[in-house]
């Protein structure tokens, strides 16, 4: 038996039996008309946003839509956040449907000319990632007769300790090195752009509040240092995100209130040049991961050399990350359950595998579950972020997963 | 500087300058109208098939379409092979367009009832993976008034040494354990199915001919043992595949002729019960990987902390495997080149990164390349298998890659 992550407490608190947005897994599968499906519980997303607001009342909240760009979810989230962060022209088009351009910012190390033109035309803010990109954006703005809105993305000389993906403190394709950032801002302002501030992102998927507190304080100090170099206050500093979620056994959920208290203190004593600056935190995973459940039906149960395999109709084609094949070195089990028997004692050690003809397609490796039968629904939790949109859905020719957002 | 795999010799042999199917990378990008794109050189695929035929004239050749299900490629390959192996109802539908049902077999550990029904209705062969699946298939056949064609997939008590993915010799979701296979065949025959034989697949991506020779000999012995237990000769034994291709520095291409010679010897002395049995080898990757080139354009070149990043418009959303995030534990570099300067001396050490906002999106890590400029096309080789269809194309909202098959 191998450990699995803990089921999100939000679901265990829902009225005894396991329900998503008040309905059972069977109800959702019936409504969908087929399996596999993702159900995103909008009430959980809204509760996360409310918790953030209470913990960090003075901070703008941005949603990084790459975590989950499902149109219905985006429509539901947009009114609850201050901004949307996008990473392609495709994401920009989705964001513009639900949010005004002034609250949309576009980061990404390889923006093409057509993407820059789309953002400038729309009036979204470009988080400029290099001197070369700034030059291209100006040329495009001139051609279009439009003034680009630009923030400068900085590759900070800070790393987020303990983060799942470090994006600062080292050579990086993201942003311009801190030592060159002030010069780039000066050039941008001189060229007549509408300078919106700094975007400073040091890492993601951190569960240690101390590491986030430390990084945020260093980020504020860096922003102040750069502002002083420029001799102008940034309208906005995007502090990045990095709030992790507990996927695996032993993971402890992030103490966001502790982060909020420390951030309030850091801002209370911030350097004078940032006095009128707004601060934003950009979150994707932390807002939506726990709200999502992937439901897949048991097609077969088979024995092989003393092990039991529960074969389900969904797999890494929909949930690559849960199979351990996306950004993790060691495969570990996401929380997984027999939907109709959550809370019952585990009786069997089984591996839950998908329908693909590859040994990579394993959603649960030697997990302890209650009795399971063909036709049961298996629930894989923590499926709301980097699931459907971050998986190779065409691989082996199965249909895409159905996605449903609860009314919240 | 880190090593990269060797460029496939097929391209180096094409007339001095780098061409794919006789045309330059720029020609292909112009024809596509945009980047990134995959170009599949059908002449190289045809040459691989011819090489297989020469090396193993008595063996049926099946194409495992999961390696690359692009419709034009499938149409071109189908007349050149004896069978198509599919792994979903979606792949079955594609195969039926280009090949008669009797030459199509359907493997996969989680076939749903609707998939079984589609295969039985079409008259394709089901590679049955469990006793439970056989029972479901019979019930569906009865309901439809049709006799299922069935082979039995066996989980062999053999593993393919040195294979990239071991699929035998251990507890497995694939097939029935060898100790139960004869009983399942007996039951299938008793129930009136059209028994087509055995499907025995021990692993994939092996480069050591000795390991493949050994596995094939053991597979033939296993098939004979099972046939004797059943008391009937299998019409076909699918020996699996497992022929690897050289992705990385130090990899040596498989000596297929040596495999063919040994297989011919093994078959010459095969047990009497297999005298009239046909044998098939099922290949995906080996037929198409080297034929594919992924072409992506340089959007930006930037310096960070002393390192150079070449930012291109394609990334892991199209070529997950090349980013090291699919089935490999340690990230290593695929062969990569500046398309217009292949054969020129390397002058710079650069990292080639895609446009996605994640540090995972790295196509070349500290590779040595000739001078590279914004607007250049970068070629990533070994892109014909498990590329476009095995990557998370929706991730971050960029368009899918264009795919082109040369006339061959």
Describe this structure in words.
Two copies of one chain form a homodimer. With 408 residues, the first copy, chain A, is an alpha/beta fold. The first copy, chain A, has two domains: 9-40 and 289-405, Beta Barrel (Lyase, Ornithine Decarboxylase, Chain A, domain 1); 69-283, Alpha-Beta Barrel (TIM Barrel). Helices cover 29% and strands 23% of the residues of chain A. Chain A has helices at residues 9-12, 25-32, 42-55, 71-77, 89-98, 113-122, 131-144, 178-190, 209-230, 256-268, 285-288; strands at 37-40, 60-64, 83-86, 104-106, 125-128, 149-155, 165-166, 176-177, 194-200, 203-204, 236-238, 278-283, 292-304, 307-312, 336-338, 348-353, 362-369, 377-380, 402-405. In chain A, strands 1, 13, 14, 15, 16, 17, 18 and 19 form an eight-stranded mixed β-sheet that branches. Chain A has an eight-stranded parallel beta barrel with strand order 2-3-4-5-6-9-11-12, surrounded by six helices. A two-stranded antiparallel sheet of chain A has the order 7-10. The mean pLDDT of chain A is 95. Chains A and B meet through α5, α7, β7, β8 and β13 of A and α5, α7, β7, β8 and β13 of B.
């Amino acid at each position: 038996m191998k450990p699995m992550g803990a089921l999100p407490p939000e679901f265990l608190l829902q009225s005894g039996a396991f329900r998503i947005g008040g309905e059972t897994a069977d109800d959702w599968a019936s409504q969908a008309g087929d399996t596999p499906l993702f159900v995103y519980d909008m009430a959980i997303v809204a509760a996360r946003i409310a918790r953030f607001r209470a913990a960090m009342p003075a901070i703008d909240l941005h949603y990084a839509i790459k975590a989950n760009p499902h149109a219905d979810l985006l429509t539901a989230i947009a009114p609850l956040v201050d901004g949307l962060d996008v990473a392609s022209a495709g994401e920009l088009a989705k964001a513009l449907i639900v949010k005004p351009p002034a609250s949309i910012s576009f980061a990404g190390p390889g923006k093409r000319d057509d993407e820059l033109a789309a953002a400038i035309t729309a009036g979204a803010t470009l988080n400029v990632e290099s001197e070369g990109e700034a030059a291209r954006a100006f040329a495009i703005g001139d051609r279009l007769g439009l003034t680009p809105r630009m923030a400068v993305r900085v590759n900070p000389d800070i790393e987020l300790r303990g983060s799942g993906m470090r994006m600062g403190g080292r050579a990086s394709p993201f942003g311009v090195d801190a030592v060159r950032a002030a010069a780039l801002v000066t050039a941008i302002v001189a060229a007549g752009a509408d300078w919106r501030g700094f975007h400073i992102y040091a890492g993601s998927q951190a569960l240690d509040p101390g590491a986030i507190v430390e990084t945020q304080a260093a980020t504020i100090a860096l922003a102040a240092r750069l502002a002083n170099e420029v001799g102008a206050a940034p309208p906005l500093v995007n502090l990045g995100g990095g709030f992790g979620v507990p996927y695996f056994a032993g993971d402890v959920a992030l103490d966001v209130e502790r982060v909020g208290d420390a951030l309030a203190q850091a801002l209370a004593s911030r350097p004078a040049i940032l006095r009128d600056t707004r601060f934003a935190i950009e979150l994707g995973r932390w807002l939506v991961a726990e709200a999502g459940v992937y439901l897949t039906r048991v097609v077969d149960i088979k024995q092989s050399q003393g092990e039991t395999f529960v074969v389900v109709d969904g797999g890494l084609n929909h949930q690559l990350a849960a199979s351990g094949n996306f950004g993790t070195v060691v495969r570990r089990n996401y929380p997984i359950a027999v939907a109709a028997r959550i809370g019952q004692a585990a009786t069997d050690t089984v591996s839950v595998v998908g329908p693909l003809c590859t040994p990579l397609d394993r959603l649960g490796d030697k997990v302890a579950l209650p009795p399971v039968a063909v036709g049961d629904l298996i629930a894989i939790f923590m499926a709301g972020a980097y699931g459907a949109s971050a998986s190779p859905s065409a691989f082996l020719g199965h249909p895409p997963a159905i996605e449903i957002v609860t009314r919240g």
